[in-house]
Write a structure and sequence with these properties.
Chain lengths: ~60, ~210
């Protein structure tokens, strides 16, 4: 059974994979919605909305 | 067959044999091969890509592409990424020896999240959510101390925490970890998590400049 630090490390890794880095225009990660990592799924939506609003504010 | 794109790299040898190298002008994309009928939301695929990403970073610094971007050919990649290539090439050359580290800090104070039912418009609700996120603050002395750890960018991610993305020389990772330990001693009441190294994520993103 993984210890807490391993789980935390995995969570951080997945968080970075899903919520960081360059977003290629027009490529939303809609298909990730099926992943049963609900926290991460929710995070994606919020992050993209947030990025969308930031982009709108710059214009 | 298609490839989930992991990152943008300066050299082919930075990628192979860990991942598939997809030419992109002077640069290369790293990709993880995925069968056409395999959903990108597959948990095993997600974990495989996360592991490949870590192994790629051990070899050389690259610009991370957010999970979910998939291409079938170099031509398709070129069509979608062409406007970015020159900027990416410049960033990769400039930050060849740099990685990012992340300091995630619990908020000292935050506003209550808005209730969807209080808004008639979805856009207004999302804007209110964004405003709440932007209003999140961390303890000022902690923020000051963390900012001294290196070249940093503070990012509002949600209503409970802030993140400090640090751009760090590869040979400076241990120094930053030691500085993190010192922060724990100096601010025992401020919960935070220092993680990394990561590829170029925040420092390659226009939104965070």
């Amino acid at each position: 059974m993984p210890d807490q630090s391993q789980e935390l490390s995995l969570l951080e890794t997945l968080d970075h994979l899903l919520d960081r880095g360059v977003v290629i225009a027009g490529e939303a990660v809609i298909s990730i919605g099926d992943v049963d990592l609900l926290y991460l799924g929710l995070n994606i939506v919020l992050a993209n909305v947030d990025a969308l609003i930031r982009t709108t504010e710059r214009r | 067959m298609r490839a989930v794109v992991i990152g943008v790299h300066l050299r082919r040898e930075d990628i192979e044999p860990v991942a598939e190298a997809i030419p992109l002008g002077e640069l290369f994309l790293s990709g993880a091969a995925v069968a056409d009928d395999q959903p990108l939301g597959d948990r095993e695929l997600l974990l495989r890509v996360a592991q490949m990403r870590a192994r790629l970073l051990e070899r050389a610094t690259f610009i991370a592409i957010r999970y979910g971007f998939a291409v079938r050919s170099s031509g398709e990649a070129m069509a979608k990424c062409a406007p970015q290539i020159e900027r990416w090439r410049r960033l990769l050359a400039q930050h060849r020896d740099d990685v990012e580290m992340t300091l995630k800090v619990a908020a000292a104070s935050s506003q209550p999240r808005p209730e969807r039912k209080d808004f008639s418009s979805g856009a207004d609700y999302l804007r209110a959510l964004h405003d709440v996120t932007r209003a999140t603050v961390v303890e000022p002395r902690f923020r000051e101390a963390a900012s001294r750890m290196g070249n940093c960018r503070w990012i509002h991610r949600d209503d409970r925490s802030l993140e400090c993305a640090l751009l760090v020389r590869r040979d400076g990772v241990d120094r930053v970890r030691a500085a993190g330990e010192q922060l724990k001693r100096d601010f025992p009441d401020v919960p935070f998590l220092l993680s990394g190294p990561w590829p170029l994520e925040v420092f390659a993103d226009d939104d965070h400049q």
